[in-house]
Amino acid sequence: MQNQGEDGIDCGGACAYLCTAQVLPPAVLFTKALGAGGGRTDVIASVENKNVAAAAKDVPYRITLFGTGQSLIQEVTGTLDLPPGAGTPVYVPGIASGKQVVVRAFLSIAEGAPRWFALPSGVRAVPFVSNIRQSGALAAPRIDAALTNPTSVPFSNVRTIILVHDKDGDVMAASQTVILSIPAQGQATATFTWNRAFPDAPVAIEVVPIVPLSGP
After folding, report:
1. What is the pLDDT of residues 122-156, one digit of tens each?
2. Which of 31, 95, 194, 212 could disulfide-link to 107, CB 3.0 to 4.6 Å?
């Protein structure tokens, strides 16, 4: 019920969660299917939270794969956090797609699914990325990046996603790794490898550490 000065039912006012009317919905910037071979498909997507003072934790999403003629191939679900004023990559590897060719992939978030709470941007501590470098053979590329912890508290189990862009700005490869520990005021190296050549020469590379939100 709406009580204790709330702006809506269990939202706003004294409630920890914001009302839907107080925030902008998340925007899916893109969803792309990347063939992984062996009847598997990797999916990379990006979801933007345009709210600079609101965040949402454990937001459910659905990824749908379609073949020719809009035939449904596969659906998978998951959750993601939406930090304030930022885009968040979503990487789901190895989705079973069988012998069908995946033509399109879509990531969707149901209206009203995020439970928003107040969190100003800039107050969260996250590792920053530097020294991104590519090495390895053409048939087995490798990319390393340094992750620096600016805080006095160690980070642990930091999932890190990489997006490799071609000359047109499209994502042509993606991967993820987990950094077990980044010491306080220290560094760790994130390493990404592929067992096949990139379809083109990389022009831009994004490395994004994912630090879970804390909230209500």
Report:
1. 778 999 999 999 999 999 999 999 999 999 999 99
2. 31
Q: What burial letters (b/e) apply to 86-95, b meaning 16+ CB within 10 Å?
A: bbbbbbbeeb
Instruction: Locate the domains of the chain by residue range.
Output: 20-118, 128-210
pLDDT in tens, 25-67: 999 999 999 998 899 999 999 999 999 999 999 999 999 999 9
Number of alpha carbons in the 13 Å side-chain half-sphere of residue 6: 14
- Tell me the Ramachandran region of residue 53: left when phi exceeds 0, alpha when psi lies from -120 to 50, beta otherwise: alpha
Claim: this prediction has a pTM higher than 0.85: yes
Q: Which two tokens stand for residue 136?
A: 């390895």
The CATH code that applies to domain 128-210 is 2.60.40.10
In 3-state terms, what secondary structure has residue 164? strand
CATH topology of domain 20-118: Immunoglobulin-like (2.60.40)
Report the 10 Å Cβ neighbour count for 45.
23
DSSP-assigned beta bridge partners for residue 41: 35, 95
List C-alpha distances in Å: 88 to 171, 195, 209. Answer: 14, 26, 10
φ, ψ for residue 53, nearest 5 deg: -135, 25
HSE-up (13 A, CA, CB side) for residue 214: 4
Answer for the pair 170, 32: CB distance below 8 angstroms, yes or no: yes
Q: Would you say 12 and 6 are in contact if contact means Cβ atoms under 8 Å apart?
A: yes
